[in-house]
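Office hours follow-up: a student asked to see two folded examples consecutively, so here they are.
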Amino acid sequence: MISAHSDRWMFVYIMTMPRGLKKIGVSAHPEFRLRQLQIANPNFIELALTRRVPRSTARWIERRAHKLLASKRVRGEWFKASLAESFWAVKTAMQESDAIALSRSASMRPVIAARAREKRGFAVE
């Protein structure tokens, strides 16, 4: 079973269903989530993609992927999209999330450096 094995991680997943339907969501245990959905659904659902991501960004990535596919939304987290389009939306959302994290860490470097200098007894400029 795929598991995040930590409170720090989750999985972004894509599930597929007949007639071109795709579900993009997040879960710490995507295979368990698949079984939950399959119980109430007569159609075969398949787990097409799982990507481990930090829990702190998982919901943002999910929402961003949903926005990227907004014109293809059928209902809730289900989209009438090709697998390639779904992969693209998740990949793009993950890349944007990484870029945001990098820009935040870069903008925090001067603050962190100033705090470190203060702790060592150096004057802050």
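And the second, which I mentioned at the end of office hours:
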Amino acid sequence: MSKPIRTLINGVIMKTFLQFAVMLAAVVAAIVIGVIVGNYGAWYFSWIVGTIMIVLFSAAGGVLLDTQEYERSAARR
């Protein structure tokens, strides 16, 4: 096997390993946080999900408003 191909394969393997390590660390952190918050975990989870949903709906509304305004100004030209 040539050196560039070997380097490419090693790079892909290292990237995959780093992704796995990061995801493993995230899972361990989530489990530790879940153990610490105990029974309040569901409340915190719903609060985080609700906040994210509000932000996403607001962003989608802003995009729709901008698109409508752009289409109105394009129709007037």
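Two things to take away from it. Residues 41-76 form the longest helix (36 residues). The chain has a mean pLDDT of 85.
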